[in-house]
Amino acid sequence: MAAPDPIISVRGLVTNLGGRLIHDHVDLDVRRGEVIAIVGGSGSGKSVLLRSIVGLMRPASGSIHVFGEDVLAMDNGAMRALQRRWGVLFQDGALFSSQTVAENIQVPLREFTDVPQPLMNEIAAIKLAMVGLEADTAAKYPSELSGGMRKRASLARALALDPEIVFLDEPTAGLDPIAAAAFDALIASLQKSLGLTVFMVTHDLDTLHAIASRVAVLVDRKLKVGTIDAVRADPNPWIQEYFSGPRGRAAIGATR
Ligand SMILES: Nc1ncnc2c1ncn2[C@@H]1O[C@H](COP(=O)(O)OP(=O)(O)OP(=O)(O)O)[C@@H](O)[C@H]1O
């Protein structure tokens, strides 16, 4: 049987920023229903790749297709239609501090739908429960929440429109190991129950081993993509240090 078309397809992506080459002909296919983890050194261009795929940054050349649609060639109307089908959790959570958690979750509903307020309140309550937050969190402000709760609230917002893909930029950064492991478990269970495709930028080796189907490593401005075991075997010095240094060995030890 032929493999289904990838849900995200990047070909020959070249990105130049501030006179620096960030991506040098990067290729990536993401399959429906998988958790793909993007790793790489600080400043290697992981977030820029994510932002390019969701149409927030424009590469110098190459092609990006999501759901078979050409992200770089579409008008605003087509882009809005596409944005309804994915949710994004940005690196810092990016909740609006002057809005309650419920209002934050309702931002995409307000932007993309004309759902009446009572239904929006119900949807916010459902999304809060999905991410494991108490009902009374709805009326709280982001500053009243712990870091882990803020991440969950951001995830609830990313899930507001029942997306097919969620993009997560370093979802466990800044969390203690216990909160990070709980967040990993949440992502894994939502991915399974909702059939989500997860595109995740991470530094976290534990997350990688716990939930990634495949890993894409951004090194020397190129992507190396495969299963964790396949990529770990690559002799590239950064990859060897990342997977086989003390932290890498500890992460493997914890999962085997
Ligand atoms: N809008 C921008 N304009 C100019 N340069 C940028 C812009 N966004 C990112 N960069 C630069 O592009 C490079 C890649 O940034 P990016 O945020 O993708 O790195 P990253 O791999 O996600 O790093 P980290 O793991 O530290 O978050 C960095 O050198 C960054 O300074």
Automatic annotation (TrEMBL):
Keyword check for Nucleotide-binding: yes
Lineage: Bacteria, Pseudomonadati, Pseudomonadota, Alphaproteobacteria, Micropepsales
Tagged with keyword S-adenosyl-L-methionine: no
Domain ABC transporter: 8-244
GO molecular function: ATP binding
Organism of provenance: Rhizomicrobium electricum
Protein name: ABC transporter ATP-binding protein
Keywords of this entry: ATP-binding, Nucleotide-binding, Transport
InterPro entries, per the entry: AAA+_ATPase, ABC_transporter-like_ATP-bd, ABC_transporter-like_CS, P-loop_NTPase
UniProt xrefs under Gene3D superfamilies: P-loop containing nucleotide triphosphate hydrolases
